[in-house]
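Task: complex structure prediction.
Instruction: return structure tokens for all chains below.
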Amino acid sequence: MNLAQEVRYLVAKELLLEWRQKYALGGIALYVVSTVFVIYTSLNQGNEELAKTTWNVLFWITLLFTAVNAIAKSFTQENRERNLYYYTLMSPQAVILSKMVYNAGLMILLTVIALAVFTVMLGSPVGQWAIFSVVVLLGGLGFSFLLSMISAIAAKAGNNATLMAILSFPVILPLILILLKLSRFAFVAEASFDDVSGLLVTLLALDAMLVALSFILFPYLWRD
Amino acid sequence: MLNLLRKRWWKFVSVAFLLVALVAGMYFPLSSGITAVGPEKATEGQTLSLAITTYNTNFENNKVPKVYLRGNELFFCANAVTILSPVNLTAVFNIPDSLGINGTKPFNVVIDDAVGGTFFLRSAVVLAGSNPSNGATHTCAKDLEIHASANMSYPYREILYESIRNLFYHVPLWFAMLLLLVCSFGSSIAYLNSNNMLYDVFAKEAAFVAMLFGALGIVTGMTWANFTWGTPWTNDPKLNGAAVGMLTYLAYFVLRGSLTQRDQRAKVSAVYGIFAFIIYIIFIFVLPRLSDSLHPGNGGNPAFSNYDLDNRLRPVFYAAVIGFTGIGYWIMSLRIRYTLLLEKQQEQIDTPYESMVS
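Output:
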């Protein structure tokens, strides 16, 4: 089997597993909705206008926590023996790539849910939806790539929630800062892609680098 | 003894460099400077009597310094200079009737002292004029020669003042920290390639000493920032970069602590060490592009190399860099030896038990 085929089989397996355990997906979707609801009710105390910066920060922090919670289980939902079985069948690169592809899909779904709930409950300061969609897409990809690798590392150490958070937060900061900056551009209705091309290229390069790093480092990690 | 010197020469060298930097950094005085000038306003045609207070000067009555007022092309000499004390003097200027300007113009006060060198206070006096047609004439020959102070001294800078000496302690600590982090990164790669446990110990101890230096760098930086910027912590990309570096490597130690099996701990922490270091490097190079920094050389601030054209800071600074890096490497090698001995002892304790079981 070549790499693409292996990845396809593994992603199909992930989807099947998710379909059989529908409550997990429903759980994480509910996590997003209830987080936004907590924000909404907390903010509604004084009937004040929500500043764009606050919306921006709340949106991305919500996504960050959702992503950490959704992706933390990547390498622990199946037992160790079954993981060993996959490793005898597939190349490690296929394993990490399939996790990344699957988590990217999951993140995009969760981002859409979060965005919808945010827009309904808190309104939306977005002025340029084209730019914002690209930013959200690339941001979701970056989150899923980085957290897939961190969850593989945390899984080796017993995968407690604290470890997942402290390992990922410092390394995810450059990504978050670029995303916050890009989102601010998307709030301006007159913004064009020319204004953000430099930052978008930086973001793309960061995403590509995360894939490359995981691709190189993961084979060292799974071999016990 | 000779053998010791031959094998451990770098330890003596780095201690010597560090001592030189510590002593020289504190020993040499600051150059002369002007702290206050009054009155700050004058008009054309007036006889201006300037009271000037200086810092680190030693004026004597038989060696009266020259005092000038300078605003770009306009240049006036003091008609009379009276020395009141080693750090106080009065300079009397006859401002010409026509300055050739309509409005106000800031003038620097420049003092040319035989011992203290040439020093000035920027925009110290504002002169007002209302006669733009006739250009002013210089009241003396424009023969100002800029020369450094006769004795070894550090540049006198507004805002920094005596705290400029922290350059020798704060900056080299970061240099040493980054070098040690590169060491840790390199050993992590070497471990994954060779599975040699020595590299794992090396990577861990390099990161540990780097964090020690990072903590010292933050403490010296906060002290400095409190003096110059008025607050120990500002939202500055360099400060955030430092904080993120500390958080990353503290997480690295928590990860190490939560893994009990030795081979697995080495492998997993090496993978995280490489992953985190590369992202950290991107962070400290990408982030300054996203926002301005208060640090020299960023966001339009002059770099330190622009401050001292006569390079009086350089030798001490480089001595401190060599000294701190050497000391860091020394601490690291001691910790590596300690860890290896500890592991050896552990093996000796474990061995009889294993032989009993088998």
